[in-house]
Amino acid sequence: MESAPDWQGAKALLEWYIELGAQDAVGDEPVNRFELPDKPPKAAAPQDSQPDPTPAPDAPRADPAAEARILAENAPTLEALAEAMRQFDGLELKKGARNFVFSDGNPAARVMIIGEAPGADEDRIGRPFVGRAGQLLDRMLAAIGLSRESPDPEHAVYITNVLPWRPPGNRTPTAEEMAMMVPFLERHIALADPDILILMGNTPCSALLGRTGILRMRGHWTEVLGKPAMPMTHPAYLLRNPAAKREAWADLLDIQAKLRETA
Ligand code: URA
């Protein structure tokens, strides 16, 4: 019979996992996947009874997107919306995430930025865009006089993502996940009521415009919920493709001009 590894063996195993690319421990408690669940005793079938309409707690939900829409429509404030989203159990992603990531910055800002989903740093800290891509985003915004820390709506930004929970391994959100969260995102935009939206990368374009192709779409104003929206390449893309920063700079200048025009 195999014995449990000593700590050196356990350390070597962990290092080997890291070398293979594992990034996260999925839970704080070890799970014995060979243990059989205790079977509850079978209840006698009720005689002459009507079927119980109450769904079992782990039964598939009837229509999570419809449920999301009702919850979103009934949220009168950003705080209420955050709470409704936090309580929403339609997305499996929630179970694997450490933190619910709602927003950052000044909700009164004229500019609202919509990214994709939290990454590892955002999941750990609970705020959007705090990793390397977020730091680049802060520098880009500072270059046109905007900051998430500014109390002045003219110079502030408000930041959120399409999904508030981190997809495992930072994979792209699925169409189903986005469809489920779009009612919340649209309500988020309506409540924050910015003058201008920035759509960072393909995911917010897909969620809000139903189209992707960010390299073609970037730099061209479009409209989301009646507001001017600028699709831009995601800062994570700019970190991998520094040559694309030139076009991103042109987009930032365009945004600055639009803010002046509509002041
Ligand atoms: N990328 C995103 O799109 N959002 C974040 O919050 C972090 C990285």
Helix/strand-derived category reads alpha/beta
How much β-strand is present in the residues?
5-15%
CATH structural architecture:
3-Layer(aba) Sandwich
Catalogue the unreliable spans. Answer: 39-55
CATH fourth-tier homologous superfamily: Uracil-DNA glycosylase-like domain
Strand line-up of the largest beta sheet: 1-3-2-4-6-5
Helix segment count?
Answer: 11
Describe the fold and architecture.
Strands 1-3-2-4-6-5 form a six-stranded mixed β-sheet, sandwiched between helices. The chain has one domain (65-261): 3-Layer(aba) Sandwich (Uracil-DNA Glycosylase, subunit E). It is α/β, with parallel strands linked by helices. The longest helix is centred in the C-terminal third of the chain and has 18 residues, at 175-192. It is built from eleven helices and six strands. The structure holds uracil. Uracil (URA) binds at residues 115-119, 122, 128-129, 131, 133-134, 161, 200, 236.
Topology diagram in text:
Layout (H helix, E strand, L loop, with lengths): L6 H14 L43 H10 L4 H10 L5 H4 L7 E2 L5 E5 L4 H6 L6 H12 L13 E5 L13 H18 L3 E5 L1 H8 L4 H4 L4 E3 L2 E6 L2 H6 L4 H17 L2
Parallel strand pairs: 2-3, 2-4, 4-6
Antiparallel strand pairs: 1-3, 5-6
Helix pairs in contact: 2-7, 7-8
This protein binds uracil.
Uracil binds next to α6.
